[in-house]
Design goal:
Layout: E1 3-5, E2 9-22, E3 26-33, E4 37-43, E5 62-67, E6 75-85, H1 94-110, H2 118-132, H3 137-151, E7 179-183, E8 188-189, H4 192-200, E9 206-209, H5 210-220, H6 230-248, H7 256-260
Parallel strand pairs: 4-6
Antiparallel strand pairs: 1-2, 2-3, 2-5, 3-4, 5-6, 7-8, 7-9
The structure holds zinc ion (ZN).
Length: about 280
């Protein structure tokens, strides 16, 4: 929530998305704020020894930032910064640090400029809290990705056909794990009839293993079991990362290495010619 203080000054809860050195002693921060979306702020003299700003502007902490908006200016001058919630423990573990960076990067790609994004902001805080409190880093990231897609109105259809809403039956093939027709372009899982129509219309339709779709649906409903094999989490992250890349039409930097590996949900090599997931 933004609130005014002083002569036109706003104070906003904020998360730092990126920070750059500016000149000799200053810092530019890109911040995700609750009430004003993405803002770019200049912390003048942040690196001077007695600056009250420099020690505060850390990644992953929830901050309260104050500035006096100047219309038409890209870069606003940061006037006040306080820590609301410390999460320095995230940086003590590399996998946790990477998961937290992925969350912030996704939020930065989706956040509006200078308009409220309360839900997205709260989602980021919840994801970062989970990482700070020792949740499994991959599971916390997968849960964030699902909630993030839902928040954008882009959640994949996981349990029913994305096109007609009918139950999407499982295709069971001899010797193969159960899979379902799936098309990112069509919005998720497809029933057999809609998969045929989508292919005829030129959409890319593949298949995804049912355990991944079921697990993602259970996570979304808060009904996933506590202990889950890492391999299933990795395949669910693979599915969501590819789906996000398709929906956002951009490849988040933090996904590049992960997505450069072969598709983890591809049909087994024992069924040559079979299509992978789309
Ligand atoms: Zn259908």
């Amino acid at each position: 929530m933004s609130r005014a203080s002083g002569a036109g000054r706003v104070r906003e809860r904020a998360l730092i998305l990126r920070r750059f050195t500016y000149g000799e002693t200053s810092l530019v921060v890109h911040a995700l704020t609750c009430g004003q979306g993405k803002v770019h702020l200049l912390a003048k003299g942040a690196y001077r020894p007695r600056s009250r700003l420099g020690g505060v502007l850390d990644l992953f902490d929830t901050l309260e930032l104050g500035w006096t908006p100047r219309p038409g200016q890209e870069l606003q001058a940061l006037e006040e910064a306080d820590i609301v919630e410390r999460r320095h423990r995230i940086a003590h573990s590399l996998p946790r640090f990477r998961a937290a960076l992925s969350m912030l990067e996704l939020a930065g790609l989706a956040a509006p400029e200078r308009s409220a994004c309360h839900e997205l902001f709260e989602l980021c805080c919840a994801g970062l809290d989970a990482l700070r409190d020792g949740a499994d880093d991959l599971r916390a990231l997968v849960e964030f990705e699902l909630a993030f897609l839902h928040n954008l109105g882009l959640a994949p259809a996981l349990e029913a056909c994305a096109a007609c809403g009918a139950p999407a039956p499982v295709s069971i093939e001899p010797g193969a794990a159960s899979r379902s027709e799936f098309s990112a372009a069509s919005g998720g899982r497809l029933c057999a009839a809609c998969a045929v129509r989508a292919r005829e219309a030129g959409a890319r339709v593949g298949t995804l293993p049912l355990d991944v779709l079921d697990f993602a649906a259970a996570l979304r409903r808060g009904r996933a079991p506590h202990a889950v094999p890492t391999e299933l989490l990795e395949r669910t992250h693979d599915f969501l990362a590819r789906f996000l890349r398709h929906q956002l039409e951009i490849e988040p930097k933090s996904f590049r290495v992960f997505l450069s590996a072969p598709h983890r949900n591809r049909r087994e090599a024992t069924t040559p010619g079979a299509g992978g997931a789309a």
